[in-house]
Amino acid sequence: MALESQGGSENQIRAKATAILSAASIVVPVAGIAIAKGSTWTVIPLGLAAVAYLVCGWFCAAALLPKNIEVGLLGGEMLKLATGTNADVQQMQASAARYMDGLYKNNQPILETASGNVRTAIIALGAEILALIGALLVRLLT
Fold first, then answer.
1. How many CB atoms lie within 10 A of CB 86?
2. Residue 1 CB-half CA count within 13 A
3. Any residues with CB less than 8 A from the CB of 66 and at least 6 apart, and which?
4. What is the structure's pLDDT at 40?
5. End-to-end Cα, the chain, rounded Å
6. What is the per-residue pLDDT for 2?
7. What is the mean pLDDT of residues 17-30?
8. How many CB atoms are closer than 10 A to CB 13?
9. Rg of the chain's alpha carbons, rounded to an integer?
10. Average pLDDT value for residue range 15-22
11. Whole-angstrom Cα distance, residue 96 to residue 1?
């Protein structure tokens, strides 16, 4: 169940990264159109928004790329190995338990890194939105 939970966590992280990237991708063109006829001062916050968008996109991509999460045990391979080495049931169970523990330990840092990437992408999206709001304010005030 722990490995299935990790697989579900990976899917949730990917869904969040996709949603964040979609939101970030919509904001820039809309703001660009709104600011197009503004003063040259709007370039500064718009440039900051573009940098924040790039950071957001980078970290979303890092969260979306496959990281070799392993969520299962090859029962046939385990049985073949056990019968080939004349292992008893307890040895098979011990081997399976070690294998599953190894998978879980391997997956956990991968998921933590992907979660951190999503967190950074959210911060970058927030910075992008704030910079675009700044650009709109400059546009309205000039």
1. 7
2. 0
3. none
4. 74
5. 59
6. 59
7. 83
8. 21
9. 24
10. 90
11. 14
CA distance 42 to 31: 11
- Token pair of 2, please? 């722990």
16 or 36: whose pLDDT is higher?
Answer: 16
Which helix (H) or strand (E) segment is 139 a member of?
Answer: helix 89-141
Domain ranges of the chain: 2-72+111-141
- Rounded Cα distance between 92 and 99, Å, is 10
Please provide the size of the chain in residues: 142
Q: In Å, how far are 17, 21, 39, 56 from 62, measured between CA atoms?
A: 9, 12, 36, 10
State the helix-helix crossing angle for 89-141 and 43-64, rounded to 10 degrees.
170
In the 8-state DSSP scheme, what is residue 86? T
CB–CB of 67/90 below 8 Å? no
Give residue 121's Cα distance to chain centre.
8
Extract the tokens encoding 93: 């169970």
* Residue pLDDT, tens place only, 60-116: 998 888 676 666 666 666 777 777 788 787 877 787 778 777 777 877 888 888 899
The letter for the amino acid at 131 is A
Q: What confidence score (pLDDT) does residue 49 get?
A: 85
Q: How many CB atoms lie within 10 A of CB 23?
A: 15
